[in-house]
Amino acid sequence: ALDTLMVGKLTTESLFILLAILTGLSNGSLENQLCFDLIEKWVKKNPNASICTALEGVENFKHIANFQDYHGLKEFRQEVAKLMGKARGGRVTFDPERIVMSGGATGASETIMFCLADPGDAFLVPTPYYPAFNRDLRWRTGVQIIPVQCSSSNNFTVTREAVEAAYQKAQEANINVKGLIITNPSNPLGTTLDSQTLQSLVIFVNDKTIHLVCDEIYAATVFSSPEFVSIAEIIQEIDVNRDLIHILYSLSKDMGLPGFRVGIVYSYNDVVLSCGRRMSSFGLVSSQTQYFLATLLSDDEFVDYFLRESSKRLARRHHKLTRGLEQVGIKCLKSNAGLFVWMDLRRLLEDPTSFDAEMKLWRTIVNDVKLNVSPGSSFHVAEPGWFRVCFANMDEF
Amino acid sequence: ALDILMVGKHTTVTLFHPTQNPEGVIQMGLAENQLCFNLIHEWLLKNPEASICTAQGAAEFRDIAIFQDHHGLAEFREAVAKFMGKVRRNRASFDPDRIVMSGGATGAHEMIAFCLADPGDAFLVPTPYYPGFDRDLRWRTGVKLIPVVCESSNDYQITIEALEAAYETAQEADIRVKGLLITNPSNPLGPIITKDTLEALVTFTNHKNIHLVCDEIYAGYRLHQPEFTSIAEIIEEDKICCNRDLIHIIYQLTQDMGFPGFRVGIVYSYNDAVVSCARKMSSFGLVSSQTQYLIASMLADDEFVDKFIVESRKRLAMRHSFFTQRLAQVGINCLKSNAGLFVWMDLRRLLKEQTFEAEMVLWRVIINEIKLNVSPGSSFHCSEPGWFRVCFANRTNS
């Protein structure tokens, strides 16, 4: 039996019972599995999307199987550019000539680092951040990460002051800061940055002549207001040196296709594009996959429907989870995007200042409740007690 | 639109097309194998469930589309391991758990360099060698390449003297040599490395305690005697003293099956620490799960694979023979070769003078006036001017 600890009106026991009920919504992995039924239906209706189908596709097999041009299939780039525009409500358009492939989002993050920084250089990264940045941004590149601490006191908003402070500290330590990376919508928070914040960050990087890399891989997972604002929109509004602006994208989250390894680097800087394109040889998207996706994404009616439906299902799932947690007094950070919520279990810690207490609570959740959630410390958050819970990795029931 | 080809750094030409551009340049500069697509077409039509995008295969779509485990699909690794064995006439067997994916051979070369060497370290590489090595092994890794000069006077055999000389040069320059990279069968030359030479190379690297990386991506292209010996056979024979932790094989399905677009690069290492490191690095260039699935199905079909390998060899041999005989008829010799998708053509007699400048002049004539895209020896770091690589498998018979 679990140890019973009274915390206000809530016992850990009842929390865990609730969470156990909610396991029907989550198995811990960060995937978007909500809309496979839509894609499967489409696949069956569109045999021409595969190079392996009789009559329609196989004639293209030879040409596609041979295609290894690191520019990528033109149709693939055009359709990805179009999708990126749709995910931003048509408020901006993207140039297919600025799309560079990479080995999944993992490859995209690493590639942009290789392009922008030398070993020893640093990038500022607001916390909490995606744990694998430690590997993707640093491992083979030799680049350093300087965390910009954000706090729950203002809902983890990235402030210009915090970024300035981190930048100054790096300067004093003689570290060469090459840029700032933001993830918008945020992993693990599930929130989007507002226009004002984005503008202030753009002005900051422009002032310091450092790069701004915007990881927008969750762009189409926005399911409620406020509306998503992309960096692409901000640079239309204010005057900035566009050579400093770069976007990372992928089809892993928005479309739920992580196995296909579709990573995209989109840069407004021609030199970076050229370098990134040559580097993409190390992780091109399989031409078989490029071909399939080009066909899938060219079906406007399908894509529009998919994006709408995906949003709807995410909203429903998010609502179910957050309402359920609320009913037992557990709050989550208010969020409007992503495939997860940022759950506040600070009240349940034996010692609210201790990360050891957080790990103890985490082990109980994982081992006794058998629910795989991710402890805040793995995201480099400054305060213990926060946990990320994914809600989109099991299909609709 | 016509296909445009970049030739050298500054010239573009349009590619030949029988109806749309009969004045275009014929592409013989790309080492591709396009001879056996009809066999593959046939197989695909008979096996629709091999694709997750057909009505028959769509039930697997979800599981495959979310699969991003850097170990790769078990069926994929098993099928590739079996295929690698078959291509070596089953004289060696391969362990699926030692197979690590990478972004094509390009990614495989880079990944092995990252795993084995630090910035500033060096690999010895016999010349002439594949130009892509300069980028793949050095660019982002900071690793150096030290050429081991091989010459036409002894048919470009790699000699221990040349190896020792290159190794000495590195020592004197205070450069740490981490390994030797060989391509067997050779690109651009074509021929295989003999078993005796291979054993000597293993002894050399073992003695110096440096790695031996064997790029065997053309293993499937043995045309006729003498037989290809894979480094895997030397290891399995266990005749000579060898620390297996120093042995690694680079492979890809690009050449043997004719699928460069699918980016199926493989690093096979006998060293557990390298396998573990490489596997983590493979996240930067995994093979698309959609493609893993297709390849797994195709290569699991023993009957098809056996037929394909035999037929592919037959067609290559015919093409190779047709080519070299016709060249011989006009007095042009090629390096005697028994493998590969290309020949190493000797045009030294046609050079105005025995210089690389004269080689480039001749090359431009071949491109612009004869309309053939071939690759000049200097691009492969060949030490002597006048040699050209010509690919003969990248067009169908028509």
From TrEMBL, chain A:
<dbReference type="InterPro" id="IPR004839">
    <property type="entry name" value="Aminotransferase_I/II_large"/>
</dbReference>
<feature type="signal peptide">
    <location>
        <begin position="1"/>
        <end position="28"/>
    </location>
</feature>
<dbReference type="InterPro" id="IPR050478">
    <property type="entry name" value="Ethylene_sulfur-biosynth"/>
</dbReference>
<dbReference type="GO" id="GO:0030170">
    <property type="term" value="F:pyridoxal phosphate binding"/>
</dbReference>
<dbReference type="GO" id="GO:0016847">
    <property type="term" value="F:1-aminocyclopropane-1-carboxylate synthase activity"/>
</dbReference>
<protein>
    <submittedName>
        <fullName>1-aminocyclopropane-1-carboxylic acid synthase ACS2</fullName>
    </submittedName>
</protein>
<keyword id="KW-0663">Pyridoxal phosphate</keyword>
<dbReference type="GO" id="GO:0008483">
    <property type="term" value="F:transaminase activity"/>
</dbReference>
<comment type="similarity">
    <text>Belongs to the class-I pyridoxal-phosphate-dependent aminotransferase family.</text>
</comment>
<keyword id="KW-0732">Signal</keyword>
<dbReference type="InterPro" id="IPR004838">
    <property type="entry name" value="NHTrfase_class1_PyrdxlP-BS"/>
</dbReference>
<dbReference type="InterPro" id="IPR015424">
    <property type="entry name" value="PyrdxlP-dep_Trfase"/>
</dbReference>
<dbReference type="InterPro" id="IPR015421">
    <property type="entry name" value="PyrdxlP-dep_Trfase_major"/>
</dbReference>
<dbReference type="InterPro" id="IPR015422">
    <property type="entry name" value="PyrdxlP-dep_Trfase_small"/>
</dbReference>
<dbReference type="Pfam" id="PF00155">
    <property type="entry name" value="Aminotran_1_2"/>
</dbReference>
<feature type="domain" description="Aminotransferase class I/classII large">
    <location>
        <begin position="31"/>
        <end position="396"/>
    </location>
</feature>
Automatic annotation (TrEMBL), chain B:
<dbReference type="InterPro" id="IPR004839">
    <property type="entry name" value="Aminotransferase_I/II_large"/>
</dbReference>
<dbReference type="GO" id="GO:0016847">
    <property type="term" value="F:1-aminocyclopropane-1-carboxylate synthase activity"/>
</dbReference>
<dbReference type="GO" id="GO:0009693">
    <property type="term" value="P:ethylene biosynthetic process"/>
</dbReference>
<keyword id="KW-0949">S-adenosyl-L-methionine</keyword>
<protein>
    <recommendedName>
        <fullName>1-aminocyclopropane-1-carboxylate synthase</fullName>
        <ecNumber>4.4.1.14</ecNumber>
    </recommendedName>
</protein>
<dbReference type="Pfam" id="PF00155">
    <property type="entry name" value="Aminotran_1_2"/>
</dbReference>
<dbReference type="GO" id="GO:0030170">
    <property type="term" value="F:pyridoxal phosphate binding"/>
</dbReference>
<dbReference type="InterPro" id="IPR015424">
    <property type="entry name" value="PyrdxlP-dep_Trfase"/>
</dbReference>
<keyword id="KW-0663">Pyridoxal phosphate</keyword>
<dbReference type="InterPro" id="IPR015421">
    <property type="entry name" value="PyrdxlP-dep_Trfase_major"/>
</dbReference>
<dbReference type="InterPro" id="IPR015422">
    <property type="entry name" value="PyrdxlP-dep_Trfase_small"/>
</dbReference>
<comment type="pathway">
    <text>Alkene biosynthesis; ethylene biosynthesis via S-adenosyl-L-methionine; ethylene from S-adenosyl-L-methionine: step 1/2.</text>
</comment>
<keyword id="KW-0266">Ethylene biosynthesis</keyword>
<keyword id="KW-0456">Lyase</keyword>
<dbReference type="InterPro" id="IPR050478">
    <property type="entry name" value="Ethylene_sulfur-biosynth"/>
</dbReference>
<dbReference type="GO" id="GO:0008483">
    <property type="term" value="F:transaminase activity"/>
</dbReference>
<feature type="domain" description="Aminotransferase class I/classII large">
    <location>
        <begin position="26"/>
        <end position="397"/>
    </location>
</feature>
